[in-house]
Amino acid sequence: MIRALTTAASGMDAQQTRMEVIANNLANVNTTGFKRDDLHFEDLLYQTLRTPGAANTRGDATPSGIQIGHGTRLADIVKSFAPGSQLATGNPFDLAIEGRGFFRVQLPNGSYAYTRDGSFRTDGEGRVVTSAGDPLDPPLEVPPETTQVTISRDGVVTAYRADTAEGTEIGRIELADFPNPAGLISLGHNLFRQSQASGEPILDSPGQSGIGSVSQGFLESSNVQVVEEMIRLITTQRAYELNSKVIQTADTMLQDVTRLR
User: Fold this and answer.
1) DSSP state of 140
2) Quick one: 56 and 94 in the same domain?
3) Could you give the CA distance from residue 177 to residue 190 in angstroms, rounded to a whole number?
């Protein structure tokens, strides 16, 4: 009975964690460039009462054994970097990545972070920055007399002035990719940081080295699918209720055993 209590408790704890992850996914359904989290669970150690293949009383090998599990636990939470749909904004500094890759920005402490959120703006010095003021890397500065900016799919940034029809190239946007994007560390604010698991960043122009291209005037929406998350929500609730029922049933059986005295 005690094993049933602890086993069911591990199941309830696992489903509670799953519910928290689903809640975070749904909370960010409208967050630009957000990537949903997926959970994976694993079973715990087994108590082996009879090893599969062990000899029976006649000396013959048994086709199966007797192993009793002790519940489940969270194995990992993995970011799904499946692309989200692109939404047209018309803002010349809104950029979406079609395919793999991340924008690289410089943080106030001098380190680098990576993001799929391409909602950039210009600050008082003409630098292209994020909504938090982190500058894009490589740095990109728009001249003050610029009336129009175009960004090609391969990252070439061209500025136009009112007194001339010819544009001037003012910089190029580079994207970063990783051997294992799922190994990136989430920092919040739509930012990621590289880790040993993600590998070193591969920097190149959009469209090169397997990196995606850039779409000007678009933003990538969250890749959270509300219908799928609602289905997971329902199954999580049902699994939690079933594990709770196991605890109630085991407690009732323990009470029955106590009454036998």
Assistant:
1) -
2) no
3) 16
230 and 181: one domain? no
Write out the DSSP string of 52-76: TT-B-TTSPBPSS-EEEE--EEEEE
Q: How far is C-alpha 44 from the chain's CA centre?
A: 25
Give the 3-state secondary structure percentages of the chain, helix then strand then coil, rounded to 5: 25, 35, 40
Q: Are residues 18 and 42 in the same domain?
A: yes
- 26 Cβ contact partners less than 8 Å away, ≥ 6 residues apart: 224, 226, 229, 233
Tens digits of residue pLDDT in 46-97? 888 778 877 777 777 778 778 888 899 999 999 999 999 999 998 999 999 9
Task: Please check whether residue 14 is in contact with residue 74, taking contact to mean a CB–CB distance below 8 angstroms.
Answer: yes
Nearest to 46 by CA among 74, 23, 63, 69: 69
Distance CA 186, CA 179 (A): 16
Single-letter amino acid, residue 13: D
What is the residue range of 198's domain?
86-220
Q: How many CB atoms lie within 10 A of CB 236?
A: 20
For 165-183, what is each residue's pLDDT tens digit? 888 999 999 999 999 999 9
> What distance in Å separates the CA atoms of residue 46 and residue 18, rounded to the nearest whole number?
23
Residues in CB range of 202: below 8 A, 6 or more apart: 176, 177, 178, 179, 209, 211
- The count of structural domains within the chain is 2
For residues 197-215, b (16+ Cβ closer than 10 Å) or e, as one string? Answer: ebeebbbbbbbeeebbbbb
At residue 1, does pLDDT exceed 70? Answer: no
